[in-house]
Design goal:
- The complex is a heterodimer.
- By secondary structure, chain A is of the alpha+beta class.
- Chain A has two helices and nine strands.
- The radius of gyration of chain A is 21 Å and the shape is globular.
- The termini of chain A are far apart.
- The model of chain A has no long low-confidence stretch (mean pLDDT 85).
- Helix content of chain B is 36%, strand content 17%.
- Chain B has four helices and three strands.
- Chain B has a two-stranded antiparallel sheet.
- In chain B, a hairpin with a 6-residue loop joins strand 2 and strand 3.
- Chain B is rod-shaped, with a radius of gyration of 39 Å.
- The N and C termini of chain B lie far apart (108 Å).
- The C terminus of chain B is likely disordered.
- The chains are: A alpha+beta, B alpha+beta.
- Chains A and B meet through helix 1, helix 2, strand 7 and strand 8 of A and helix 3, strand 1, strand 3 and helix 4 of B.
């Protein structure tokens, strides 16, 4: 009898643990930090900045460039209030909102290049490619931590 | 089926409350004398298997919205985008491996640098 009661408890505990795990993953990321990196991409001998190792496979898979150099970076704590941050490569970014609904404005040399609303998840990169650069192009790599 | 008890047994009152240990010792001793019935086979789910099943069911219920209309909700979700400068096109690439997204704006660099 006692053993059978334990048998009832285990599924309950396992179910609660699963709920907790899934629930914590589904929760909007409180206290997330948005890392924005300006990357100069160009052709030539293959070369990737060490600070871009986490997104190197993604960039190599989809972009025709072989050199990726970090031009600058900035971090924004979420939820963001729309304050401007200088990312580098003449790029200024403004973020408003939280990970699940983030309004992002990218300006370059005082002109709004991109304004977008996105939903992000921790560790999943969003890359804007094709911004002006003296050599090649400028990428903006955004990833939430 | 009616059972008859001797009147003496009905009239007799216990002189004192027996201590529990004594009662259970006697109970066990009497039970040991009686033949035991063969335990009938009854299927019982393994607690581990039941636990896994409950966990999967709970996870499926909680994660149901993720697998609904927007199958790419696990990665980046692009709600809207506006390009504020002259350009020739926009290509949105969804990366299956990382669930990440590349928004490639074509013709922008050419326009900006005048090449």
């Amino acid at each position: 009898m006692r053993r059978w009661r334990c048998g009832h408890r285990l599924p309950l505990i396992a179910g609660l643990a699963a709920l907790w795990l899934v629930g914590s993953a589904a929760r909007p990321a409180a206290g997330a930090t948005l890392l924005l990196r300006a990357v100069t991409a160009s052709s030539g001998p293959a070369e990737v900045d060490g600070a871009l190792r986490d997104v190197e496979p993604l960039l190599r898979r989809h972009l025709q460039y072989s050199q990726f150099r970090l031009a600058g970076s900035a971090s924004i704590s979420l939820p963001a209030d729309g304050a401007a941050v200088n990312v580098g490569a003449d790029v200024v970014a403004r973020c408003h909102g939280d990970l699940d609904r983030l309004v992002l404005t990218i300006e370059q040399r005082g002109r709004v290049v991109v304004q977008t609303q996105v939903g992000l998840r921790r560790g999943v990169p969003l890359v804007f490619s094709g911004l002006a650069s003296r050599e090649g192009t400028t990428l903006i790599v955004i990833i939430a931590r | 089926m009616k059972r008859r008890m001797p009147l003496e047994a009905l009239r007799s009152r216990p002189s004192r409350m027996r201590p529990p240990d004594e009662f259970w010792a006697e109970f066990r001793a009497r039970a040991a004398d009686r033949p035991r019935a063969e335990s009938a086979f009854m299927w019982r789910p393994s607690p581990l298997a039941a636990g896994v099943a409950v966990a999967l069911a709970a996870a499926a219920v909680v994660a149901l919205p993720w697998f609904g209309s927007n199958a790419r909700a696990a990665g980046v979700r692009l709600d809207s985008i506006q390009i504020g400068v002259p350009h020739s096109g926009v290509v949105v690439v969804y990366d299956e491996v990382t669930s990440g997204m590349i928004v490639a704006i074509d013709g922008l660099a050419v326009t900006e640098t005048g090449r």
